[in-house]
Specification:
The protein is of the alpha/beta class. 43% of the residues lie in helices and 14% in strands. It is globular, with a radius of gyration of 24 Å.
Length: 551
Amino acid sequence: MTNIPQSRQLYIKKNVSIAFLYQVMRFLLLVLWAAVSLALSIKPPLAPTQDLFYDVPANVSGYKNGDIIKWRTPPAQLRSIYFPMNVKNAWQLLVKTEDSFGNPTAFVTTVMEPYNAIPSKVLSYQAFEDSACLDCSPSYSVLYGASMNTIGIQYEVALMEIGLSKNWYVVLPDYEGPKSAFGVGPQSGKATLDSIRAALASHDFTGIDGDAKVGLFGYSGGSIACGWASQLQPSYAPELKKLIAGAAFGGFVTNITLTAISIDGTSFSGIAVAAMNGIIQEFSSLKSIFVNQINLDKLSLFYEAKTLCLKQLGGVYHYVELFTGANPWMYQGTRFFGIPQVAAVIMNTTLAVAQSDGVPEVPLFIFQGQQDEVVPLEQPQRAFDNWCSWGAPSIEFALSSSSGHVLEGATGFGAAFAWLEKIFDGHIPVEGCTRTIRKSNLLYPGADANYRQFLDTLVKGIFGAKIGQDTDNLSESTMLSKVLAYVLSEWFSLMNPLPQPQVAFALSNSTARNETESRVFKGLGDVVRLWKSTGVNPWSVLQRNETISLR
């Protein structure tokens, strides 16, 4: 362009830029159009309460804990948020376990096989279901076409894809069991361990090695299952000690009472309502006591939580005061927890109370925000102090000074996956106990690489990439990722504390929002099918190597 006048060069550059933006806008219009279209109908899978596969068989007592009673391929393709997820195989297993009282029961667990799977590495992922409703179970939530009320767990699938992209099998248990006993640690821990047993016994159809190394991950509600599985393992599943490489979990809930009081009257109040329902569903003897303690005008609204998923809880119960305030739902306020029968149940569902309850024998990595408003730091700190004083062989406690509960969930998982990858690769974890405070766990060694992994897999997965084959295993940090991690940690430190997501929770139960999400869910699936049927390459469109025509 050296012979073209400068004014003409500017004109050409301006119009090239406009042309590029025009192509991008046309591409986005295609997405928008398809997102709201209902051209293709999706037959939704049956919810667990309607699906006979979930029924506990009459002869369940004839099986051993961890036995596979039956299995099937999922009734629908798996998905990550709105989009189908392309894994090589998936299975749903009905597994024998026991409840908090030792009574035989069964639950469903989902096994995902990525392309190029490594049979010797298994990630047991405990999702934060945070619901007392069976129709919010993880095994159902991850199915394409399932209710969008389960979107919380669908977001977590994007984290599961990190493990799948590293070619690990991923096992996703419905650890709350058939009674949806949210908040009941013993039930959750046993189911998690029995899910691992079942996965390791599934070689004939999944290909998982019987002596595969297993890592556990969970955040917030998922930490209940991870923490209890770690404490119960020595007594409940001693044979797994040599197979569980370690457990990484954060937002670590050890005491339901403290969490319930901490979130009372906030946008997270619905979680406490759901947890109380979950506990009553497991400990039915508490029901009559509870009815005598609650304002009867609130009773039907309280029980409504048994039909709601996490997404809906915020909209129905935001700012509800169960135990505090001038007019709490519970007549005695926080003194409710002092009623002997209630106190006994709470004691039985609190971690790290006595050495005789069990001490984790496998390596642990605990990540926590110091400003956590949902799970106050005193909870994981007490468990860390007690377990360490009782001889736990390896606990690494990674604290972030700049994050609360929600932010740590977003900025701490990279550290957890970096730790898991190291122990899978044979690195020796810390000896004894260490406690480290950083501005953010984004600065944990290797954490930044997992955010590259997260974004790479998420974007490629939208366009149908084969997870584990077309996605890259990004384990190495780059200078750019390190700089970004440092900048973000400084920014979060300056912004601390971040406000609670009140508006998002308040809007979460709106009918209009549900309808919009349903349309988007169906429409975005249409986008991918439309691209494939017309041969459109979205990357080529964005790079102006290909055009699309809207008619």
